[in-house]
Design a protein that fits this description.
Length: 376
């Protein structure tokens, strides 16, 4: 009987502690070892558009500090201590224990009481690992350039593949992290670190899953992301390309329907767009190699002056068809295709399905080789 009474007492105590937990806010109990001149800690709130300081508190002589703050929904927060910034994810009811050492130049930290915060810490370690690898490549490349006295194509040919290989490694690790942590808000922030134009297909699939499961329905940043991806989805791979009619450079109507039964790349660009002009030689090379195999291009310019547009066509030797609304990003074709940045392109197959999107340089070459089975 005595043992049973002890067990019941422990259970009652646990229930009492749980019932006393304040569900209207979260707490951060922090410790900065060797605080030195650190007198204040700042709490920042992050969303998909900005980061704002929402609170500050004194750091005691022994390095201890505490925050109490309401969170209407689970969200990404940051602690700023001295020059270092630390990520955490908090929600009401959590008591988070945070520890760091001001003498640690790597700014490592320990965190308890929030599983999502532990996950965002895991993601940051992953991100830092690949970031450091790329930094070493960049430093080595810059040292070689300085030694040679100039940049050279041969150096770029050596270091660019190394850099891109690391970026691919980072992406694969991020996608694995997301897949392993789908129920954590940390996965959402990991997905947000990827390049939208390149990894749109994965982002749309992730947004679909969030929407279907009703995940993080109270988080505005997540819901904004879902809405954006739902707008993009009809223009993602595997969907039918929407038809449009615009004006050719010769003043005659040009329609996507004119290319029914053919492969066509709809290429959004402009004379004033430096990255577009830099990519044009690659497009010229691809068109020359595959035009006789059935590869067509329809250039859609975001210029507003026809003279500028024509001069760029002539200068870059763009011998394919051209059209424009001459309204920058506000033209009906640009709005229909949700063009928010250029260069941007859509490759459409003979059935009118989008089969590739935003492929440039080597990726364009690889796609065309695979599609037409002919090396450039």
């Amino acid at each position: 009987m005595k043992l049973r009474s002890v067990v019941y007492s422990i259970i009652a105590l646990v229930l009492l502690m749980a019932s006393c937990k304040d569900e209207s806010l979260f707490k951060i109990k922090g410790t900065v070892k060797n605080p030195g001149t650190i007198k204040k800690a700042y709490l920042l709130e992050a969303d998909s558009t900005q980061i704002s300081i929402i609170d500050s508190t004194a750091v005691a002589a022994d390095g201890s500090f505490e925050f109490k703050h309401p969170a209407p929904y689970a969200n990404l927060y940051k602690l700023r201590i001295g020059t270092a910034i630390y990520d955490l994810i908090a929600k009401n009811g959590e008591v988070i224990e945070f520890t760091t050492d001001e003498n640690d130049k790597a700014h490592t930290y320990q965190i308890k009481g929030s599983e999502s915060s532990e996950k965002i810490q895991e993601f940051n370690k992953l991100s830092n690992f690949w970031g450091e690898k790329n930094s070493k490549i960049v430093e080595e490349y810059q040292a070689k350039v300085q030694q040679a006295g100039k940049e050279s194509d041969s150096l770029i040919a050596i270091y660019r593949p190394m850099f891109m290989k690391n970026m691919d490694g980072y992406t694969q690790d991020v996608l694995k992290f997301i897949n392993d942590n789908k129920t954590s808000l940390a996965a959402f922030y990991a997905m947000s670190s990827l390049e939208p134009m390149k990894y749109e297909q994965q982002m749309v699939a992730y947004a679909d899953e969030l929407k279907d499961k009703g995940s993080f329905s109270d988080n505005p940043g997540v819901q904004r992301f879902i809405r954006q991806m739902m707008l993009v989805k009809p223009l993602s791979l595997g969907h039918k390309a929407p038809n449009f009619t615009t004006t050719g450079i010769d003043g005659k109507p040009v329609s996507l329907a004119d290319y029914k039964g053919k492969y066509v790349m709809v290429d959004f660009w402009a004379s004033w767009c430096a990255p577009c002009r830099a990519e044009n030689p690659n497009v010229v090379k691809a068109y020359a190699a595959f035009k006789d195999k059935g590869f067509n291009i329809l250039g859609i310019s975001l210029d507003v002056k026809k003279d500028d547009w024509q001069k760029a066509i002539d200068a870059d030797k763009l011998t394919w068809a051209h059209a424009s609304d001459l309204q920058r990003f506000d033209g009906p074709t640009e709005r229909l295709y949700h063009i928010e940045g250029i260069p941007a392109n859509f490759i459409i197959d003979p059935q009118g399905t989008i089969v590739a999107k935003n492929v440039r340089g080597e990726e364009l070459e690889q796609f065309l080789n695979k599609t037409f089975n002919k090396p450039i």
